[in-house]
Amino acid sequence: MKNICEWYNCNENGDFKAPLERDNSKNYRWLCKEHIKSFNKNWNYFDGMNQEEIESFIKSDVTWHRPTQKFGSADNFFSILWNNALNDKFNFFKKDGDINKLNEKKLSERDKDAFRIMDLELNASWPIIQKKFKSLVKKFHPDKNAGNKQFEDKLKKITLAYSHLKIIMIKK
User: Fold this and answer.
1) From CA 140, how far away is CA 156, in angstroms rounded?
2) Distance (Å, rounded) from C-alpha 40 to C-alpha 18?
3) pLDDT digits (tens, 9 = 90+) for 76-117
4) Orientation of helix 149-171 relative to helix 77-85, angle to 10°
5) Which of 23, 38, 148, 155 has its CA 20 to 30 A from that of 14?
6) H or E segment at 119?
7) How far apart are CA 48 and CA 121, in angstroms?
8) How far apart are CA 134 and CA 140, in angstroms?
9) What is the mean pLDDT of residues 28-49?
10) Is residue 27 within 8 Å of 19, Cβ to Cβ?
11) Nearest Cα residue to 157 out of 75, 92, 67
12) How many CB atoms lie within 10 A of CB 75?
């Protein structure tokens, strides 16, 4: 079905969309090549806005018109990811005899989870942690597992655990 140009007294084919409003809505009209050129030449997105509204729009556009949070805020994406990644709710990474040994150490639950996720002893040295990380990356990398999402998610947890253990080792 062909569209007719919606410019006054024009009967050419309307092959181009022109917005009716600046709100990026789905409201548009069809224009021919000649009239879309004229429309684009005269189009001013900021027409009818005062200086303050224009500046506010441009400032908001920097973040794609979405609110931002401070990096340390509780609802920050990375904080949520970090807190949930090392949370082993289903005890996938726990070994049967490890629970008593874990309680003897002065490590936080997050520290313990990081060791469990990487299947390491709590007193593992940094070279052992690095070696284990390399072997786990090779084992769970998505390229080795046909892009399987399960392996990708597991690798993300392992990477976060490794990063956490790296921080622990620096503090020692």
Assistant:
1) 10
2) 8
3) 666 666 666 666 666 666 554 444 444 445 788 888 889 999
4) 90
5) 23
6) none
7) 66
8) 10
9) 90
10) yes
11) 92
12) 8
